[in-house]
Specification:
Elements: H1 17-29, E1 32-33, H2 34-41, H3 45-57, E2 62-65, E3 73-76
Domain HTH marR-type: 24-68
Organism: Halopelagius fulvigenes
Pfam families: MarR_2 (PF12802)
């Protein structure tokens, strides 16, 4: 049986399909970098950057850095 997706916040109902997909992917898989999202989902880097920026601006993602390499930004869902 497949796991159900986390409920989409009301203010994301008008978001682009890519933004919703990225939100669900990070909520289900945990912290991911832009590169990991591009590889995993097949979106362009620009699509991922626009969507993650929107999610950060709306308060649904937070930016942090990998502990082993501070050059890489991770996106995580806030607690």
């Amino acid at each position: 049986m497949s796991e159900s997706l986390p409920e989409l916040p009301d203010d994301l109902r008008d978001a682009s399909p890519a933004t919703k997909h990225i939100y669900h992917t990070i909520a289900a898989n945990g912290p991911l970098t832009t590169s990991e999202l591009v590889e995993m989902l097949g979106y362009t880097g620009e699509t991922v950057r626009v969507a993650t920026r929107e999610l950060v601006d709306r308060g649904h993602l937070e930016r942090t850095h990998r502990h082993d390499d501070l050059r890489h930004c991770l996106f995580v869902t806030p607690k």
